[in-house]
Amino acid sequence: MSLVQVEGLSVRYGARTALSRVSLRVEPSEIVTIVGPNGSGKTSLLRAIIGAIKPFQGRVVQAGSLKIGYVPQKLHIDETLPITVSRFLKLSGGVTAADIDYTLAQAGVPELEKAQLSQLSGGQFQRVLLARALIAKPDLLLLDEATQGLDQRGSASFYQQIETVRQNTGCAVLMISHELHVVMSASDRVICLNGHVCCEGTPAVVASAPEYRALFGTGTGGALALYRHEHDHGHDHADHCHDHTEATE
Predict the structure, then answer these.
(1) How much is the average pLDDT of 179-204?
(2) CA distance readout (Å), 97 to 101, 111, 127, 238
């Protein structure tokens, strides 16, 4: 059974339609990336999946007892607040020292346990947020543009860590990103969103789809080859590539 199934989802804010008849699924242990231009409804989709907003139409079906970990785009912490990484992770409640050691190791930053949050770099802080999301050992990890503000090398390193997390824990990953050159080929499937699902498939298929190129151009093709992962072998078929012309957000 799919971990999450989105069926004919539409989201409206007053008279404005943010998402129109979006359907997708996330299977166990796969990495699915959602790409799309600004205002395409990516964050609205994630919020609907976690139940933060109510669909206008359609539904979201979660597998029974599904545990979700969430890495936000940003989290503002008062820089004057004297709090260590360890203490921050314990705010989730019921967290043991072993939990902290495990999750920081999974996030690739075991050395940060006693560091002050205020002294972390942007990349280190995002790794700590990843550790926080992994505390509950989720079945599904959601990332909402979790590398915004990092440079290309920092972003690539973060997404490589996500692949390691998937390998080590078996959790599925659903992530939003605007960093096409890095993130698309770190995925099993890519969903191109522009108020509706305009194309879906493997990274290679989506990168060559007319609907994708109309939105993003053709400049990421070479970079996709550089970042291609071994799990892309033999599955270069699109689930669907549709030419929609509906009004979008």
Answers:
(1) 85
(2) 6, 14, 18, 45
